[in-house]
């Protein structure tokens, strides 16, 4: 570990924190219906959309109507994307002449991009036409992120309001999130990417002759625009198969820093939006502090593991000071790669700038564990915040009694109904991750996809379902996932992880919105103090993570001890 | 909590009362009935897997092949886990039952004298108390047991209510007013009363009280239900984790036996809090009963913990209830000693508390003790409604005392003519919330007596403590706003309602509730009933009317309004105990993983022994020790569950810090030590 490495990490944290306040405030005003900076420019367009769709922007929805609107919107997006992928061979915008996408892969990909997962069982530059990339995948990159933001805002309103039945209007929230937040930011970031050398063109591939005289096909395309929303929307689906390790997606250390900032900035800023909308910015700061604390610990652990390298390679005469460089880009090095691995998995992004299968066992364990915690540190755009709020509600329920009051969060009493729904939500991840993994681990046809034996092979399976169910989308690599079994089951895991989780959460929002807010007194459990941050972190680790400990012990953990004992897989 | 006050008032039997424990041990066995255990999902799951491992043990014994010594021991400890949980509940119930038994003795099958004509008490028929209906009118005479709850409609009698209250001094029950309610099971000592029955046999106050302390009528409270749901959810999550582990282990080349998977499951699911949850609830009700307060539902006890506004009657709660003399202020030309002497003579025959306090102050502070006996020498002028004065004619001294305007009228003078210093004294007393009494002798104004509503000592500190807990205190009084404000500031309450009518109270409660606050109050009169019903916690006085007792959700058998504060503290203690043990139970899981996971895969991956941080002897002893710890911790925590976590009136932040440290961090550390110690014992005894 080097000072320069730590400075890079510190620099990223600082840049993200600097953006939290302005961006959080902007979104709070936007979602509270106040006039914002871009209103005069985008207002007519926004109203035009509502008029065209016949949406009454002032009419608010109850939780069920809100959730149904969200489900309808996403079902339509799924159907559209599926059709587009299947038919891309007969549609225009296909200069490379790619065939239509197979049914199971199209299902998996549609589920993946609708759920903000962006798991890719395919290589982008060799499978997807430009039209599929731009009108299909990139569109869903915006819409799935906007869906997440809308859901988070609905839950925030439930906590901020009292004695009402409505949570806002999904169509309005999703439109505003896209129009006022994602599009302008993506536009600016795309320009920044172009400045660092990322291509943006509608041309097909370029043929080149190398120095040795070999002919090489260099794929090109509208990379910068897709790259911007891929990171800002915590999507992670790359234009190229190599994702952010590819020099056209992520050419320089500067573009790497821009990428990481983009991944973190919206989920982090939404905590401030939350704080402002519930009328106490300290509440948002406490959530952000817990996120930052656990994320920093995860980054530290990954960096340490990667910098320590592999003792077996050191024994072969490799310089131990270089750390573990297997699967990493030389232009990023150990620190930026370890940082990227932790951030992309803590944020449900799933973009990668190094191959996660080549991380050391501990370096691979941390990303997997971060996803299993439910993608809340700070998690996906919107989804991270509502996931974190679920953990906060769980924390006050368990520990809130210890101050001698029945549990309440932000003055809302947490009762049996909320607990019932919360249990439904927290059952989703273990069922989807452990359930599918255990079946795959016993199924010979599923095991045939593994590239490695032993615990590393188990890690490959575990990582795939974890990445899918947590809607992360990063791949461990090593697993040939483009099979009927994996396309179908990972697709189901992704849909469960998104929709089976969020419907009960919306029901909780509906129940909380109807309750009056109990005024704060000295007898109220404070939820903005360092003590609460520690409590929340503990609950996340123990209640959120402990269930995965035996599985992790059989995968990366035992692999680590075996590596120390001199065995590799 | 005011631990001293509590221990002085309660008569708690020892936690280890032999008879209670023996009975509880039997009850624990009876509670193994799965239909009864269904109420408690965590322990129900434990019982099912215990049966499963027992079957495996039987197979190992008969068919062979397995390890009967291991599966037998695991099965035994799983059964112990269930039994210990049942035992905890049975002990809690047993402590309540002792109380119920003494109440049952009062519920005799008495004979009632039912009047054929309510207006004529000479004509009655004798019927069994069980045959009485609400609305029947009965006669109860000296020596009779009152057969059911009712309202006195005629007559007055002294009644022994010790069966209910434990207080042996008889109380007066009479028709009309606030002392008209009588309770079934109490005995009339003298005279007679005619009673209209308000509750049929089986639903009387006494019946309900017995059912409550026995726990028979116990319903899960809202928070308890919510917590049970979370515990069931956690059980499901760990069930998924354990079942899928079989598949993941199969991939890794380990075939996990059902016995070890069950051991992992039971140690992970929250058996500790699951086993103690209902005991905590019963013990909370029981603490209240021992404090001589009966709650009509557990919900009320829980609500008491949430209360953030206390409505307290001034009289009797905040002040002593009587105005007492505190100073003598002379008029120009007199000394305070002369005022004291005149006031003393004027009050020698005054038997009101005010009069006695004047005598006490004058004789104790002005050395006038020897004058007390001389009252007989004079001619007492008793208080009359016409003059509104009282006093004494002693030789040629004519001494009178009374309200200021009455005395001025007696002196044939006007307020304007009185000396300015006198006015100043009178105004100051009124402004401070006191009552001025003027004293005159032989046509001259001697001075003023300062009568004051004396605030109870240490009540201000009590309110400060409540404020630190986030509870707002509101004084309710019939005094005028000036007097009320002065007393409120002296007592340190946060708010007051002056010149309060029952409607004012109700309106205040509704307004506070609309702001999301929870209100507790106590009351005794029929006109308090609407407010008692509206309040979230309404404590009715046992001496109060039937209407008040029906409207409230708690009854204070001692009729002591100050106990409202302790009721809140008991509610908080119940919730804290529940939360602390839940946190402890969940934090325990970390150590159990470190004990069991390396042991599960010892054969396939000996490298995982690096996780065996406790250095447990063998894989089998590690698993067995974790299961034993999991069972024993329930027993170890029974005393805490019954006694409750210590409560201190500090803010929520301080409470959280302390309890998180003790039960969160403690719950993390304790099992590491406990499992290690058990492992040492298991290895030394050669059990595994």
Automatic annotation (TrEMBL), chain A:
Localization annotation: Cell membrane
Membrane topology: Multi-pass membrane protein
Pfam families linked: KdpA
Keyword Membrane (UniProt): yes
Keyword Ion transport: yes
Primary subcellular site in the record, as a coarse category: membrane
Membrane-spanning parts: 63-85, 134-156, 177-195, 254-274, 286-305, 332-352, 359-377, 383-401, 421-443, 484-510, 531-554
Keyword terms, alphabetized: Cell membrane, Ion transport, Membrane, Potassium, Potassium transport, Transmembrane, Transmembrane helix, Transport
UniProt cross-references to InterPro entries, sorted A to Z: KdpA (IPR004623)
Quaternary state and interactors: The system is composed of three essential subunits: KdpA, KdpB and KdpC.
Family annotation (NCBIfam families): kdpA
Family, as annotated: Belongs to the KdpA family.
Function: Part of the high-affinity ATP-driven potassium transport (or Kdp) system, which catalyzes the hydrolysis of ATP coupled with the electrogenic transport of potassium into the cytoplasm. This subunit binds the extracellular potassium ions and delivers the ions to the membrane domain of KdpB through an intramembrane tunnel.
Protein name: Potassium-transporting ATPase potassium-binding subunit
Organism, scientific name: Chelatococcus albus
Gene: kdpA
């Amino acid at each position: 570990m080097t000072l320069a490495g730590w400075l890079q990490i510190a620099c990223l944290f600082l840049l993200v924190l600097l953006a939290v306040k302005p961006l959080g405030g902007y979104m709070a005003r936007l979602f509270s219906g106040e006039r914002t900076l871009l209103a005069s420019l985008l207002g007519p367009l926004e109203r035009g959309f509502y008029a065209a769709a016949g949406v009454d922007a002032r009419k608010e929805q109850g939780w069920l109507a809100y959730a149904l609107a969200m489900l309808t919107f996403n079902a339509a997006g799924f159907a559209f994307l599926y059709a587009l992928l299947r038919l891309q061979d007969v549609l225009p915008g296909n200069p490379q002449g790619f065939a239509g996408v197979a049914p199971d892969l199209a299902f998996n990909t549609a589920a993946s991009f609708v759920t903000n997962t962006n798991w890719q069982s395919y290589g982008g530059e060799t499978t997807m036409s430009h039209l599929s990339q731009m009108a299909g995948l990139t569109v869903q990159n915006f819409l799935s992120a906007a869906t997440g933001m809308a859901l988070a805002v609905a839950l925030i309103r439930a906590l901020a309001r009292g004695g009402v039945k409505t949570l806002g209007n999904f169509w309005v929230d999703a439109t505003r999130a896209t129009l006022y937040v994602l599009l302008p930011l993506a536009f600016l970031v795309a320009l920044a990417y172009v400045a660092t050398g990322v291509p943006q063109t509608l041309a097909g591939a370029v043929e080149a002759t190398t120095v040795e005289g070999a002919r090489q096909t260099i794929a090109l395309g509208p990379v910068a625009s897709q790259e911007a929303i891929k990171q800002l929307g915590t999507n992670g689906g790359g234009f190229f198969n190599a994702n952010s390790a590819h020099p056209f997606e992520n050419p320089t250390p500067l573009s790497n820093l821009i990428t990481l900032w983009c991944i973190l900035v919206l989920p982090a800023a939404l905590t401030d939006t939350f704080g402002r909308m519930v009328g106490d910015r300290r509440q948002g700061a406490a959530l952000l502090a817990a996120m930052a604390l656990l994320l920093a610990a995860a980054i530290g652990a990954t960096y340490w593991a990667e910098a320590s390298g592999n003792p077996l390679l050191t024994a072969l005469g490799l310089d131990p000071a270089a750390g573990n460089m297997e699967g990493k880009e030389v232009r990023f090095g150990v620190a930026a790669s370890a940082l990227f691995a932790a951030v992309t998995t803590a944020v449900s992004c799933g973009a990668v700038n190094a191959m996660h299968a080549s991380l050391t066992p501990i370096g691979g364990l941390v990303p997997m564990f971060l996803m299993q915690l439910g993608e809340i540190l700070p998690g996906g755009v919107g989804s991270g915040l509502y996931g974190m709020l679920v953990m906060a509600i769980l924390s006050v329920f368990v520990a809130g009694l210890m101050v001698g009051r029945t549990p309440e969060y932000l003055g809302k009493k947490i009762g049996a109904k909320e607990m019932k729904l919360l249990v439904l939500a927290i059952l989703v991840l273990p069922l989807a991750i452990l359930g599918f993994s255990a079946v795959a681990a016993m199924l010979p046809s599923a095991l045939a996809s593994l590239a490695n034996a032993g615990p590393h092979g188990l890690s490959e399976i575990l990582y795939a379902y974890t990445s899918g169910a947590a809607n992360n989308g990063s791949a461990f690599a090593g697993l040939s996932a483009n099979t009927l079994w994996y396309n179908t089951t990972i697709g189901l895991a992704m849909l469960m992880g998104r929709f089976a989780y969020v419907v009960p959460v919306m029901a909780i929002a509906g129940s909380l919105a109807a309750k009056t807010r109990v005024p704060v007194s000295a007898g109220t459990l404070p939820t903005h103090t360092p003590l609460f941050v520690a409590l929340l972190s503990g609950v996340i680790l123990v209640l959120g993570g402990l269930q995965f400990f035996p599985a992790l012990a059989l995968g990366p953990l035992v692999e680590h001890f075996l590596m120390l004992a001199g065995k590799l897989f | 909590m005011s631990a001293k006050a509590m221990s002085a008032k309660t008569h708690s039997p020892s936690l280890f009362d032999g008879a209670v424990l023996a009975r509880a041990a039997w009850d624990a066995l009876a509670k193994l009935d799965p239909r009864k255990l269904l109420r408690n999902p965590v322990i129900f799951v434990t019982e099912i897997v215990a049966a499963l491992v027992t079957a495996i043990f039987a197979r190992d014994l008969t068919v062979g092949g397995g390890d009967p010594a291991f599966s037998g021991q695991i099965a035994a400890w799983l059964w112990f886990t269930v039994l210990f949980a049942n035992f905890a509940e049975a002990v809690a119930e047993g402590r309540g039952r002792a109380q119920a038994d003494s109440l049952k003795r009062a519920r005799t099958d008495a004979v009632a004298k039912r009047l054929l004509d309510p207006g004529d008490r000479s004509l009655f028929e004798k019927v069994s108390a069980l045959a009485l209906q609400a609305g029947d009118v009965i006669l109860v005479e000296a020596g009779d047991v009152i057969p059911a709850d009712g309202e006195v409609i005629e007559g007055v009698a002294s009644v022994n209510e010790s069966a209910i209250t434990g207080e042996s001094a008889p109380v007066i029950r009479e028709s009309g007013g606030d002392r008209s309610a009588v309770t079934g099971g109490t005995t009339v000592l003298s005279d007679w009363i005619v009673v209209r029955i308000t509750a049929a046999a089986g639903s009387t106050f006494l019946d309900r009280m017995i059912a409550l302390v026995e726990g028979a009528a116990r319903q899960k409270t809202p928070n308890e239900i919510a917590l049970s749901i979370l515990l069931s959810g956690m059980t499901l999550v760990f069930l998924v984790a354990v079942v899928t582990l079989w598949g993941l282990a199969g991939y890794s080349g380990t075939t996990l036996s059902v016995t070890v998977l069950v051991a992992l499951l039971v140690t992970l699911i929250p058996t500790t809090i699951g086993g103690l949850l209902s005991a905590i609830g019963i013990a909370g009700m029981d603490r209240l009963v021992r404090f001589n307060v009966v709650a009509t539902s557990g919900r009320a006890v829980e609500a008491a913990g949430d209360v953030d506004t206390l409505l307290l009657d001034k009289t009797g709660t905040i002040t002593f209830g009587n105005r007492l003399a505190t100073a003598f202020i002379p008029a120009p030309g007199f000394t305070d000693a002369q005022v004291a002497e005149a006031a003393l003579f004027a009050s020698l025959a005054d038997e009101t508390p005010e009069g006695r306090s004047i005598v006490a102050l004058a004789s104790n502070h002005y050395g006038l003790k020897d004058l007390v006996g001389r009252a007989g020498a004079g001619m007492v002028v008793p208080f009359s409604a016409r003059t509104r004065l009282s006093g004494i004619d002693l030789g040629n001294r004519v001494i009178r005392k009374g309200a200021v305007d009455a005395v001025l009228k007696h002196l044939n003078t006007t307020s304007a003519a009185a000396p300015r210093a006198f006015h100043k004294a009178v105004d100051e007393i009124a402004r401070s919330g006191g009552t001025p009494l003027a004293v005159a002798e032989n046509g001259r104004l001697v001075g003023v007596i300062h009568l004051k509503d004396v605030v109870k000592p240490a009540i201000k500190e009590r309110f400060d403590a409540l404020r630190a807990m986030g509870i707002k205190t509101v004084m309710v009084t019939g005094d005028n706003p000036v007097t009320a404000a002065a007393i409120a500031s002296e007592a340190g309450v946060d708010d007051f309602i002056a010149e309060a009518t029952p409607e004012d109270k109700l309106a205040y409660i509704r307004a506070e509730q609309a702001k999301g606050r929870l209100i507790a109050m106590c009351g005794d009169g029929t006109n308090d009933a609407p407010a008692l019903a509206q309040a979230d916690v309404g404590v009715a006085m046992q001496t109060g009317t039937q209407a008040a007792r029906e409207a409230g959700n708690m009854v204070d058998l001692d009729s002591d309004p100050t106990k409202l504060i302790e009721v809140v503290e008991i509610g908080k203690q119940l919730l804290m105990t529940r939360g602390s043990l839940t946190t402890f139970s969940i934090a325990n899981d970390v150590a159990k993983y470190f004990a069991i996971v390396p042991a599960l895969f010892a054969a396939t991956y000996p490298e995982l022994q690096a996780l065996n941080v406790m250095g447990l002897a063998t894989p089998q002893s590690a698993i067995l020790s974790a299961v034993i710890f999991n069972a024993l911790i329930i027993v170890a925590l029974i005393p805490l569950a019954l006694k409750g976590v210590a409560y201190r009136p500090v803010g929520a932040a301080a409470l959280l810090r302390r309890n998180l440290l003790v039960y969160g961090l403690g719950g993390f550390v304790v099992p590491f030590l406990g499992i290690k110690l058990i492992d040492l014992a298991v290895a030394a005894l050669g059990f595994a």
